[in-house]
Design goal:
353 residues; alpha/beta; 5,6-Dimethylbenzimidazole Phosphoribosyltransferase, Chain: A, domain 1; Rossmann fold; 5-stranded parallel beta sheet; 15 helices; globular
Length: 353
């Protein structure tokens, strides 16, 4: 029996400081730029002030991109445009600075961290600091078997919690959270469908790499079969992650929960991080107050999950590549909001207020 109970996070996670947010709103009303003129940047600045517990807000100066990597057994069904077991190639491209998220992170001066939760490759192919966290080699085929064992599920969640603690302890003040996976949108969509009570066809998208109609039908069938296995364990988030999640999804769920405990804001990327956020919300209803949705990936399961959590994406640029790219594109907006909230001056005669 697992010693970990995700429901315990409900008592550990508090909302961002409502009093501080009201103070930030009042300060905003006294600035030279009229209230509302900066649109959602005002809202973001107030959210950050509440998260930080101070007015004026501190500018976001130490963000980090954190990507959890894994392969999923369900990819063998042809539900992804990428080769099964090929997630290590995505990791290598990110580490070599050749992937979209790596290029953007480098241009923005944001450190990028990759965590191998469940890659299906020889660990020698990648640096030890990436692979040393691995919970297992690949995840089970969720249409007919569990993704993980009980022990692996707990280990993966605790891995995510540990990474969140490491980031908070190192001074990271905002995390851009994403995944590097092959087949990951299938378990993610399954989790969303299960938690939202919808059918497979409602949540099945084309994935970050894009799939044709035949692959879409195979993916829809895989999600349908996985849903049959998910529904009996809906009341237990750990068992749900074990049955139809994966090492990366369990780790990201643990990361999101512990980041909220540590009062560390997170920008969510696409459908995988949204699905993990939805699982985390089931465990701790206050947790979504610590997250913002970076962008609309066009995946129907992501839209369903964000709607359930009342999170409105910051961007809609049609970015489907995944890998944290869309969320990283939203980071400058959040940084701009914090800088404006911190540095704009009050109107003349009100500076002392």
């Amino acid at each position: 029996m697992s010693s970990l109970n995700l429901d315990d996070f409900s008592d550990l996670i508090e909302r961002p400081d409502g009093g501080i947010r009201r103070d930030a709103e009042e300060r905003r009303e006294r600035l030279t730029v009229p209230p509302g003129a900066l649109g959602r940047l005002d809202e973001l600045g107030e959210w950050l002030a509440a998260a930080q517990g101070q007015v004026p807000v501190r500018p976001v100066e130490h963000p980090r991109v954190v990507l959890f990597a894994a392969d999923h057994g369900v990819a063998s069904l042809g539900v992804s445009a990428r080769e099964p077991g090929g997630a290590h190639l995505l990791v290598r491209a990110a580490l070599d600075g050749e992937s979209p998220v790596a290029v953007l992170a480098r241009r923005a001066g944001v450190p990028l961290r990759v965590v191998d939760a469940g890659l299906d490759c020889d660990p020698a192919l990648l640096p030890e600091e990436v692979t040393r966290h691995r919970v297992r080699r690949g995840s089970g085929r969720i249409d007919l078997e569990d993704a993980l064992t009980d022990e692996e599920t707990e280990a993966a969640v605790r891995l995510g919690m540990r990474i969140a603690d490491e980031e908070a302890d190192s001074g990271t003040d905002l995390v851009v959270l994403g995944d590097l996976s092959v087949g990951g949108t299938t378990p993610a969509s399954t989790l969303v469908a299960a938690l939202c009570g919808t059918d497979a066809s409602v949540v099945t998208g084309r994935g970050g790499a894009g799939i044709d109609d035949l692959a879409w039908m195979r993916k829809c069938a895989a999600i349908r079969d996985a849903l049959r296995r998910a529904r009996p364990v809906l009341g237990d988030q750990l068992q749900l992650l074990r049955a139809v999640g994966g090492a990366d999804l369990a780790a990201m769920t643990g990361f999101l929960l512990q980041a909220a405990v540590r009062r560390m804001p997170v920008i969510l990327d696409g459908v995988v991080s949204a699905a993990c956020a939805l699982v985390a919300q089931r465990a701790a209803f206050r947790a979504p107050d610590w997250w913002v949705a970076g962008h609309d990936s066009g995946e129907p399961a992501q839209a369903k999950a964000l709607d359930r959590m009342a999170l409105n994406p910051l961007l809609d640029h049609g970015v489907t590549v995944g890998e944290g790219t869309g969320a990283l594109l939203a980071l400058p907006l959040v940084q701009a909001a914090s800088a404006l909230a911190a540095e704009l001056s009050p109107r003349a005669g009100e500076a002392a207020g």
